[in-house]
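Please supply some protein, with fold tokens.
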Amino acid sequence: MARPTHVYTIEYVATLISENLELIEEVARNSDNIDYGEMIHAYDGTEEGVTTFTERGVESLKEFLADVRTWECGVRQFLVDEQCDPEVIKPSWQTSRNHKPRGLRRMDT
């Protein structure tokens, strides 16, 4: 199998697949959610760097989100499991891919 020769930034992926950037960032926090080697952290001179996805990584992300949406309570349950503050999660996230609320917060554990 050939190695990927290009990657997509996380911001571009959000636009490309019409998903909420903060949701994708939550998925990307746990590398086990995406096929191994398909999500790559790139150093760009900033403290944070940038998360990128290969083409297969984008497909893996889409598959993961489609699977999450089949769970009871869907995206909301995923975010609760990932310890996001459920009070800031809009119910429409469970069904709408185009709704883009801002301001997810991590819960202190």
User: Anything to note?
Assistant: The helical segments are 10-16, 21-28, 55-68, 74-81. Residues 94-103 have pLDDT under 50 and may be disordered. Residues 55-68 form the longest helix (14 residues). The first strand starts at residue 8 and ends at 9.
